[in-house]
Amino acid sequence: MMDTSENKNEIVVYQADNFTRVEVKLGNDTVWLNRNQIAALFNRDVKTIGKHINNVFTEAELDRGATVANFAIVQIEGDRKIERQIEHYNLDVIISVGYRVKSKQGTQFRIWANKVLKDYLLKGYAVNQRFERIEKDVNYLKNKVDEFDFQIRTSLPEFFRLKKME
User: Fold this and answer.
1) Is the model's pTM score more than 0.85?
2) Number of domains into which the chain is organized
3) Same domain for 43 and 60
4) Is the Cβ–Cβ distance between 110 and 99 less than 8 Å?
5) Degrees (nearest 5) of the Cα angle 6, 30, 68?
6) Rg value, the chain, Cα
7) Do residues 21 and 62 share a domain?
8) Looking at the structure, do residues 96 and 107 belong to the same domain, yes or no?
């Protein structure tokens, strides 16, 4: 488990509709949410989200040490501000839970995730195809340069021989 109490983390607000609003921590090249935020995101109670998170780790789908971090959060308890270390889960866990949750928001999440994944795969395929074409063109040009180089090197002695005869 990572301790990120000294990391500088950016917070962005995710709002899928007029009702769901989640502040999202960005840090270490990923998104971080705590159980309460994941519950709000998928419109499920915290206990259900906790069950899904535990199953993700119990089934060894993800490694807890690489996907869980503690963030220092200031909470108001009574009339005091208390700083607590709260477990947050990275995007890998959020995605895994999103595929397990049965709710309207869970369905919307799966539709969105599938669309994004499909877009990335198609764009990646197109980029790969373009890269292969460029690579073929570069190899063709390299071969032509080698041919020209060979012709120049083999023709130069003959050129100098002709110059001497004149």
Assistant:
1) no
2) 2
3) yes
4) yes
5) 65
6) 29
7) yes
8) no
Q: Residue 110: is it exposed, middle or buried by C-beta count within 10 angstroms (0-12/13-18/19+)? A: middle
**Sequence-separated (6 or more) residues with CB below 8 Å from residue 79:** none
32, 86 in Cβ contact below 8 A?
Answer: no
Residues 87, 6 share a domain: yes
Same domain, 92 and 148: no
Model confidence over 27-81: pLDDT tens digits? 667 788 999 989 988 889 999 999 999 999 999 999 999 999 998 888 888 999 9
Helices 91-98 and 35-42: crossing angle in degrees, nearest 10, is 40
Answer whether 72's CB lies under 8 Å from 5's CB.
yes
Whole-angstrom Cα distance, residue 1 to residue 90? 11
Picking from 67, 2, 81, 60, the residue whose alpha carbon sits closest to that of residue 38 is: 67
